[in-house]
Amino acid sequence: MNELIAPALPFDMKPRAREAVRDLKLQQFVGNATHLKDTQRGGIFGRDFGPDYDDLRTVARDTKQYALDHLDELLERFIANAEQSGAKVHAATTGREACDIALDIARAHAAKSCVKSKSMVTEEIGLLPAFEAAGIKTLETDLGEFILQIDGDAPSHIVTPMIHKDRVATAKSFVRELGARYTEDPTELTMIAREHMRGLYRAADIGVSGANFLLADEGSAVICTNEGNFDLSVGGPPVHIVFVGIEKLIRGARDLAPFLKLLARSGTAQPLTVYTSFVRGPRRAGEHGGPKEVHFVLVDAGRVGVLASEKRDLLRCIRCGACLNACPVYRKVGGHAYGSMYAGPIGAVLTPELERAQGTASPGQPAAGLTNYPDLPRASSLCGACYEACPVKIDIPKFLLHDRVRLRAQGLSPKSEARVLALWRWLAERPALFRLAIGAVRLHARMLGRKDGDGERAWLSRAPGPGAGWTQSRDLGIATGESFRDWFASREPRPKKPGGSQ
Amino acid sequence: MTARNTAVAALLARVRDAVRAQPVTVRDVPSHAVVRRVSRDTTNLADLFATKATAVGMRVTRVDAAENDAGVDAALATLIAKHAKGDAKVVVAVRDANLAACAATAAGDRLAPNDNDDLLFDCEVGITDVDCAIAESGSLVISTNGRIRNAWITPPIHIAIVRADQILPDLVDLFELRPDAIDAASTTVITGPSKTADIEGVLVTGVHGPAAVEIVLVG
Fold this sequence. Notes:
The complex is a heterodimer of chains A (502) and B (219).
Chain A: H1 13-22, H2 24-48, H3 53-69, H4 71-84, E1 88-92, H5 95-108, E2 113-116, H6 120-125, H7 127-133, E3 137-140, H8 143-150, H9 167-178, H10 186-203, E4 206-209, E5 213-215, E6 220-225, H11 229-235, E7 239-245, E8 249-250, H12 257-268, E9 275-279, E10 293-299, H13 303-308, H14 322-326, H15 328-333, H16 344-358, H17 385-389, H18 396-409, H19 415-428, H20 431-448, E11 450-451, E12 458-460, H21 468-471, E13 476-478, H22 484-490
Parallel strand pairs in A: 1-10, 2-3, 2-4, 4-7, 5-8, 7-10
Antiparallel strand pairs in A: 5-6, 6-9, 11-12, 12-13
Helix pairs in contact in A: 2-12, 9-10, 16-18
Chain B: H1 3-20, H2 45-55, E1 59-63, H3 68-83, E2 89-93, H4 97-107, E3 123-129, E4 132-134, E5 139-143, E6 157-163, E7 167-168, H5 171-177, E8 186-190, E9 195-196, E10 204-205, E11 212-218
Parallel strand pairs in B: 1-11, 2-3, 3-6, 4-7, 6-11
Antiparallel strand pairs in B: 4-5, 5-8, 9-10
């Protein structure tokens, strides 16, 4: 598997974050693209839902939570209905098992080639390397994923996987890998990819995709794309395999509309994705074209463990990518800094949780999870932008805090943090010393800071000691007015309400 | 029991235990009333559909209902002449017998056989009708029920014939009023031409599916 999204554990985020912050191109691409998408998201919801937006999110939150709270019933219904339509349903506890199921199907058909539609869960289980190792030539058909594939690169965003790459890199890869003539025009580059893939769709033995939703009532999968690559990869080959995490289940089509309306608006500010495709079993008698076999591989890979945990809410995620676009940390460090296919705020909470639930720690090691991703809970300013952007209202900041508490309980917090807190506590328990210390800090800050034109606020461009990290890329605002204690002491006591107990 | 069935049963058992490990927080699915944007009482859905379909990048040709088949023939002929050059082939995947005849006439000797999925890659234009359409989003709903699969995906140009009485107000209505539309082996809700913005966010149409979607709106 690609080391960028499946790094050696325990994963150290800091070197990657440092490198990303120094990469001016990455700063520009990721910064601009996320800012634009975030603004457009606000625009389309304002225009189409106005004040109803929050109610829509609440409906989506509760509809998905209902599905998770009743997942056993829904799963049973889905399996029965999918088999009724002629599909075959498989279950995989681990990523390895999921790959093995697919390899068995491929072997039964002597498959040599595969066309694959974009899917996060297949990244997670490492399907592509498993297929390649078995000699099955696999083509990523989503344009972004295709470019990443020929470059040996990895996705850095859930929705726009090559957000970190530009047209020049693409042009060079197409010359090198496809023998194309050099062009930096995105339209021409896209057409080169289109022509390259046409013949491969036609000849492929197997089609593979993920799914955005599973409908229990109908036994169907729903797949959303803008390019139409899913429709081609399911329509051409004689066999199609859908890999899907069990958390994608909802009751049925009757509950689908809120999610479709939220997904495309949250992800790319479109009313709907261009293609919303429903798969309900293999081709039927008398039909021309379409797969003769449809397989659903239901993937656990830690999800059952998350379902049983106090972090069940995380499974509501519909992978729209809005929290990545909204996050000030993601915007600076990009996706690869998170060491997972799930980057950004949702990745920071989901990655350790899935890992913990899978229990992939080496024998003799303590429970993995946070041990393997100790930096992720701290890769956030807890500003809450992710929570506000989330279409299913996952309280990501709450879960990040929860993980920070766990980090501390497991002794995984940095020593400096413990020292600072100990010092703070020692001071806070000694009012006279506390007053003195605060006074000293205020005096220092006033001496070092430079004032705004109006003299109301002051800024520190270079903080001393451990504060220097903060002021490397921004100024630190400092309070210049009266202190709270002084204000409180000088204020007139409020007259007591007659007869009141307050 | 096969190994497959055993694994599925084991997953179900584990999910059952996991569900019980936490309290149920939502006992009933809430009302979805807020999801609807276009009311069922809306008049002139054809105008709204045309506006929204245009907004997402499809092109709409209106045909007066009074003109009937002759009007559809003429509109299709114009569009085919515009898009099919040289010896380009046209595939017709139209379920409605009447409209299918119109399309076949308009395609003339460009008409390709519509029972061979593989040949679709050689067609320049795919003509379909629709199961229904959605005014709110300007979407086409097309199923494999009675139509060759991929006729609306593989050719670079897609021409869709929509009758005004097939237009539903809102996406919600697709699932409430027309569950049959998603009962086929495959159904696709199409909202615009195939597009990508993967390279530096620059919008390019026609990456895998059609670069242009032409709608002939009757009535």
